[in-house]
Amino acid sequence: VDVLIVGGGVVGNSIAFHLTERGVRPTVVDKGFPLSGTSGSTQAWIWVHTKTPGFYGELSLISADLYQYTLAPRLPGIEYTRTGGLALLLGEGEMEGARTLADAQRAHGIEIELLGPDELRRLEPNLSPSIAGATFSPQDGNVNPFQLVRRLMEEARRQGTSYRFYERVLAIREAGRGRTTRRFEVHTDRGVFRAQHLVLAAGIWTPELADHLSVPIPVRPVRGQILITEPLRPVLGHTLNFMRQMSNGEILFGYSHEEADRDRQNTGDILSKTAARGLHVLPLLRGVRVVRAFAGLRPMPADGLPILGEVPGHPGLFVAVMHSGYTLAPLVGTVMAELLIDGKSSIPIGSFSPSRFQAAD
Ligand SMILES: Cc1cc2nc3c(=O)[nH]c(=O)nc-3n(C[C@H](O)[C@H](O)[C@H](O)COP(=O)(O)OP(=O)(O)OC[C@H]3O[C@@H](n4cnc5c(N)ncnc54)[C@H](O)[C@@H]3O)c2cc1C
User: Fold this and answer.
1) How many CB atoms neighbour CB 190 within 10 A?
2) Distance spanning both ends of the chain, measured CA to CA
3) Ligand 1 contact, 163 CB (< 6 A)
4) Which residue is closest in CA terms to ligand 1's atom 20?
């Protein structure tokens, strides 16, 4: 194959979709079924205003704009909604930090306002009166993760992407460096691919795949646990930094960041803390039934920033792994397709290069 993508989550599928939009027909291989990784156990906020101010915040905004103006019109049905986002000020003394954040984000073109308790209540009357305020941005929103990945796959497949599910990559070898020979041999439990370009988009599993080529990709899993309630009448219009009401009326909320290796079990202590925070923020949840809980593993790069681009010293080998894969999916798909096809990207993403860890190694 010309381009082999390992990983059929939101990142691998966005890259496949954007490649097919430009006439390339990649193959995607995944050890499980679509959304069996982190992309199926997520919150999927398309979130901008509390991202690290500067380049990372700007990229999140560009990606949110790609949803709004390019991807959502191109892929009807993904349920991207720009609800506006509220980051609640729950602790003592958070107002000062919020002011600093607002100044920094405004300097980079991100719309952000500081709300006191009354303005917050005007936007969301059901929130607890004890909440001191919030930062607000009209540029935040969310997407339906299942519909997004379904639609990306549908379009990618229609335009020639091949999918191989339940096929696990076991080993990768660099076969040769010529332009005509296939550079990579990718051994799976069902055979061998020979690929000219290889994209590792395998979320938390990317490090062990890159390890076959001795490329350091330091990513660790960070667990998050989520609760979902029974459907309610509309009670919440905006996306809060840890809660939202979905279009079917269910409230989805969670905030935990836990070091738990690859354990995707829910735990009683975190679920009760999550429920307590939910009640504190939205008192009408008292007596409402929780109908489902799940846990997911965020792929967290060592320095928190995306790892994106071709690996120096390994022509044809690309890596795409990050937390906030939903927020960044359209941007990552666009720039990775550019790198693969044009050899350069329209946005300078050199600071996200995998080379930063090679140097450290
Ligand atoms: C609780 C929680 C909340 C989150 N909230 C948000 C949010 O609000 N906004 C946001 O933008 N992001 C959020 N994220 C992060 C986001 O979900 C991830 O960044 C994104 O899903 C990563 O997608 P991916 O395609 O890189 O990984 P995955 O979806 O994990 O896909 C990787 C795929 O690679 C496959 N694979 C692995 N090893 C192999 C192998 N050897 N052979 C073949 N296939 C292999 C796996 O089967 C898997 O399907 C959240 C995550 C969690 C857990």
Assistant:
1) 12
2) 31
3) no
4) 325
pLDDT digits (tens, 9 = 90+) for 310-348: 999 999 999 999 999 999 999 999 999 999 999 999 999
Sequential DSSP letters for 260-322: -TT-----HHHHHHHHHHHHHH-GGGTTPPEEEEEEEEEEEETTSS-EEEEPTTSTTEEEEE-
Asked if residue 29 has its Cβ within 6 Å of ligand 1, the reply is yes
pTM over 0.85: yes
For residues 111-133, one letter each, b for 16 or more C-beta atoms within 10 angstroms of the residue's C-beta and e for the rest, the string is bbeebebeebeeebebbbeebbb
Span 125-176, pLDDT tens digits: 999 999 999 999 999 999 999 999 999 999 999 999 999 999 999 999 998 7
Q: Ligand 1 centroid to 269 CA: how many Å?
A: 24
* Amino acid, res. 19: L
135, 269, 336 from 298: Cα distances, Å: 24, 20, 21
